[in-house]
Structure formats: structure tokens, C-alpha cells
Design a protein that fits this description.
By secondary structure, this protein is of the alpha/beta class. The protein has helices at 12-23, 54-60, 70-76, 119-129, 162-166, 190-210, 224-229, 259-268, and strands at 3-8, 36-38, 44-49, 65-69, 81-85, 91-98, 113-116, 134-137, 153-158, 169-178, 180-184, 212-220, 238-241, 247-255, 272-278. Helices cover 28% and strands 32% of the residues.
Length: 284
Amino acid sequence: MKIRIAIQKSGRLNEDSLQILKDCGISIDNGKDQLKASSRNFPLEVFYLRNGDIPQYLRDGVVDIAIIGENVLIEKGEDISIAEKLGFSKCKVSLAIPKSVKYNTVQDFEGKRIATSYPNTVKNYLDKKGVNADLHIINGSVEIAPNIGLADAICDIVSSGSTLFKNNLKEVEVMLQSEAVLAVSPRISEERMEILKKLQFRIQSVLKARNSKYVLLNAPNDKLDEILALLPGMRSPTVLPLAEKGWSSVHTVINKDKFWEVIHELKKCGAEGILVCPIEKMVV
């Protein structure tokens, strides 16, 4: 028996999804233009689908799990559970208007025409704010709508903001933050749930490694207590004596979000010869 996973047929999310499976040690026999492929070394079958179709495939039990943007689930699959947030393909779903238009509050959208591929998300957001707007559903490039007179504003995914800039638009309301998630079909069988647990264990090990750095440094023994106080480690830092008397080697793991802050403090405390190494997997 194999667990069936859906991933986006093409685009950045496709690449990132295949990469995390590869980092989990899962090899995919992936021929060109295939709609389905199997793993050689893990009980997993990949279905390449349109992003917007994936929630329905999950709901119907055609696939057991999927790597999908959280924004798509919020729009089309709020009844589908999330097993894991994956930390990549981060973006925002935002409201934007022409740069020349003055903006005060979300109440400015009252009675306005908004072009979007996310009508449910926009409606729910505006309803909570007590705002009524006229939604124009567009599948495709919504950013041109204000320029051709079809709409007063748009709601779309924003990553770098470059597309808005090119179309003379400005972001004025961030409705939600999104990232890739591992979603689970409500119809998944118990047998396939056991396979999912094994996959999740691998994914969690990869994500922990991506968010951490392995650090080795030399510390004077008279400053060791101060240095160790800065280092959380996995359980506690490893301390080994150096050949040079009065010095120790310290090994630890630092979260990448706090990395430079911790490194600067370590230097202040007298740490020397600091080496930083990537971590491939991290099992705790």
C-alpha cells in the first residue's frame, strides 16, 4: 500500500515540494510531463495536479495528503485539516489599489469593485469589517483589472510586491499570511495514516535542520560560564578540553533566526574560532 500525495503540477511550489521529499530521502521516478509518479524507496505515489483542484481531490479521497498553499485551503478547503506547516512558499493575500488613490481604512472599499481569484477570502474578511463590495471573480492575472477599468482594486497573492509595482498598484490591507502546508484528506485510511506518521517524522527532522545551525567555537575557561549561558543547544552544549591549557571547545546548535544576535554576544564574551556548519537532518 502507498500513500497518495498531491503536489502542484508546475511552478515554485512544485519545486519546493519535490525538494522537501528529496531531503526526506524519498526518490521519485519522475518522467517528463507525467501526471503520476512513484517513489522507489518509500510507499508514496505523487499526483501532479492544478493547485486549485487539490482541495476537492483531498475531500473526495482521491489523494490522501497534499503539499498546498495555506491560502488555497482557506479559500477552497477550510474543512480540510493541516498536519504540518512547512515553512516555504511564504506569501500574503492582500488588497491593493492604484498608487494614485488615497487610502485611509478598509472602509474605503465600501461599494468598490474588487477583482480577485479569492472571492471567499475577500468576502469573509470584508464581512468581518462590515464592508460591502462588488467582487469580480477572475482566474488569472487580476493585477491588470484596475488599469483596464474593470475594477477599483484587486485581491491577490503578494510575495515580493514586484508585480504590484509594475502595474502601478500599492498594497493597503494584508488579509492573511500563507505558507506551504501538508494537508490531510478526511477520508484517509488508518493504514495510510501510519505511513503519514513516518513521513511526518522525516519532514519534521528536515525542517528542524533547516531552521538550525551547528556551531563550534573555542572558549577561554574563565569565560565558559558566560558563554554557555548564551547557548541553549539541543539538551545542553558539548564542552571538550583543548590541547592548549585554559581553553575548551564548545559544540552546540543555534536557531537560525537568533544566529547573528547570539554570535555577536559570543564574540563579546571572548569566543574565538567560531565555525558554522549546516545541518542535514535533526532528529530529537
